[in-house]
């Protein structure tokens, strides 16, 4: 089993949703996951390895998932009030990142992080892969509900919607994942 630490997560709704989603990720057994609710700049949730310099060639065994109090760019949409299916979709995506990070060494994760920051194409690949991992873990409907929530909610800022369109799977891509027409990933071209 994974070890879970909740920091500043007051709402039982959030805790239950997180644990419910985590139960579908057997590959994360043995890891320590820290779900920390706090002000997060530029996003709603963010999964990151906890880097331990003494284990440069071994992989991280702890991951932190930062969770904002409000959906990005909103002071009225509380994460604690999100519909259960939407919250689970968000957590499924973030845990998809953790599954994606797990095979990398600490030094590999440092390179991965730098590449994510400097390469738009790599960032798109990573975000698509996290969605695909979540869908493969059984969270197709939840990922779809989260996408619809973000794209169709009137109080979510257009800049957030545009970022989602640029880097993440579209609603159509997610819908295709339920059939055998699964998109292999974004078409990436280096310029």
How do the helices and strands line up, and which of them pair or pack?
Blueprint (H helix, E strand, L loop, with lengths): L2 E5 L4 H11 L9 E6 L7 E5 L12 E6 L16 H18 L4 H13 L1 H17 L3 H13 L5 H10 L3 H6 L15
Helix pairs in contact: 1-2, 2-4, 2-5, 3-4, 4-5
Would you kindly provide a written description of the structure presented here, covering whatever features stand out?
Helix 1 crosses helix 2 (84-101) and helix 2 crosses helix 4 (120-136). The chain has seven helices and four strands; from the N terminus they run E-H-E-E-E-H-H-H-H-H-H. The chain has helices at 12-22, 84-101, 106-118, 120-136, 140-152, 158-167, 171-176; strands spanning 3-7, 32-37, 45-49, 62-67. It has a four-stranded mixed beta sheet, with helices on one face. It has a single domain, classed as Collagenase (Catalytic Domain) (3-Layer(aba) Sandwich), CATH 3.40.390.
Whole-number radius of gyration? 16 Å
How many domain regions?
Answer: 1
Ranges where pLDDT stays below 50 over 5 or more residues in a row are: 179-191
Largest beta sheet: strand ordering: 1-2-4-3
Order of SSEs, N→C? EHEEEHHHHHH
Mean pLDDT across every amino acid position: 87
Largest sheet: 4 strands, mixed
CATH topology: Collagenase (Catalytic Domain)
State the distance separating the first and last CA atoms: 43 Å
Identify the CATH architecture. Answer: 3-Layer(aba) Sandwich
Tally of helical runs: 7
CATH class term: Alpha Beta
Structural class: alpha/beta
Helix content: 40-55%
State the assembly state of the protein chains: single chain
- As a percent range, the share of strand residues is 5-15%
| Shape field | globular
How many beta-strand segments? 4
């Amino acid at each position: 089993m994974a070890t879970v630490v909740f920091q500043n997560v007051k709402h039982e709704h959030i805790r239950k949703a997180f644990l419910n989603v985590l139960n579908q990720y057997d590959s994360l057994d043995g890891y320590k996951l820290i779900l920390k609710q706090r002000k997060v700049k530029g996003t709603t949730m963010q999964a990151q390895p906890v880097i331990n310099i003494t284990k440069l060639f071994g992989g991280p065994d702890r991951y932190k998932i930062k969770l904002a109090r409000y959906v990005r760019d909103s002071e009225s949409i509380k994460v604690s009030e999100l519909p259960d299916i939407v919250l689970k979709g968000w957590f499924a995506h973030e845990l998809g990142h953790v599954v994606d990070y797990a095979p990398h060494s600490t030094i590999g994760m440092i390179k991965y992080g730098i590449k994510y920051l400097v390469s738009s194409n790599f960032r798109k690949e990573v975000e698509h892969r996290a969605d695909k991992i979540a869908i493969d873990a059984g969270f197709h409907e939840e990922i779809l509900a989260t996408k619809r929530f973000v794209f169709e909610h009137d109080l979510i800022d257009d800049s957030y919607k545009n970022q989602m369109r640029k880097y993440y799977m579209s609603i159509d891509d997610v819908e295709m994942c339920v059939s055998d027409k699964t998109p292999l990933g974004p078409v990436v071209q280096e310029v």
